[in-house]
Amino acid sequence: MTESIDPAIPLDTTESVEWSGRPRITTILPAVVIGVLLLVAGIVVSVTRGTPLFLTVVPLGVAIPLWKYFALQGVQYVITDEALYVKRGVLTRSVTQANLETVQNSSFGQDVTGSIFGYGSVTFEIAGGEDLSFRAIEDPRTIRGLVDRAASNDDGLGGDARRESSIPGDLTQWQQIRDEIRAIRSSLEE
Question: Residue 2: pLDDT above 90?
Answer without folding.
Answer: no
